[in-house]
Amino acid sequence: MATRTVTYRAASHAGSWYTANGAALARELSQWLEATGIPRPWATGAAGNGAGPSSPVPAGRLRAIIAPHAGYAYSGPVAAYAYACIDPAAYDRVVVLGPSHHVYMPGCAVSTAAILRTPVGDLTTDDAAVAELRATGLFSAFDPAADEAEHSIEMHLPYLAHVFRARRSAIRVTCVVVGSLSTEAEATYGAAMAPLLLGSPRTLTVVSSDFCHWGRRFRYTRLGDPPPPAGTARHAAIEAMDREGMALIERQDVPGWSAYLKRTGNTICGRHPIGVLLRAVDVWQGGRVGKAADAAAVSDRANGEGATAVRETLRTQFLKYAQSSPVVTTADSSVSYASAVTMLVNGDASEDG
Questions:
Q1: What angle do CA 265, 276, 253 make, to 5 degrees?
Q2: 24-28, 38-42, 141-145, 153-157: which has the minimum mean pLDDT?
């Protein structure tokens, strides 16, 4: 029998975008997670996520996160707000969606490396999920050199390896690089990926995105459309523009999100991965995938005359926002970072009987 050659994706940004020292990196990640103040499930014994009476996290079952991918000195503390909500015992699969920064693609590609290296431990690729996606004909194999050059996926791998450290060998990870998709292509990929992303409550989706890249070096110095009132600080106007987009994501407003990007031109590098997630959520909310599995995972179903019939819905909420620096003049520059969670929660209730 032929022996399969094991391929590795190197931690190519270790030593520059984050420390290559595993022990030091583990300490940093732990400190950032602790600093969020979000009770973590493996520390509290809670089920599903880190929600609690004093937590900003909505009670429910975590299905997806949005988190940034800049150098850890800038984005690491913000990303921690999303990662602190993960219960490592609740998942068997993780799917990471990140934008392509260096290679133009009109579609999506999957990493085919078998092992994903990080300084805090290696992760194993989900061969079955990769084969499933490739079989659709919509996903190409990402070139290994381009894979290692791309940081949008890699910056999430150490966080995943750290959070899932007790179950790292049991978790399978799928890395999908999302190209420059049209709105029609976002709909196609969202529908195609919905069964993988949301079909099982034991799958966690990670969407990699920074928000506004502002300044001359990014060739973007707009301050919203319509412009802010006279006298508004530039960094405040940037935040207001970002938060307008964040509110549309929270409302899961697919056409509103597309119109916002066209109107403002906001340089949100993960806009297409976000668009794919929004489309997949729209498929789920329409009852076309995954709800049977989620319903089976909910143990407190009501029954009997006069009981409350519980409806589940997916709710998205941002937990943290920050900027790399508060810009004052057009000679300054900044990148915005935000973390969000998408939870399966009890929606509106109706009375039976």
A1: 65
A2: 38-42
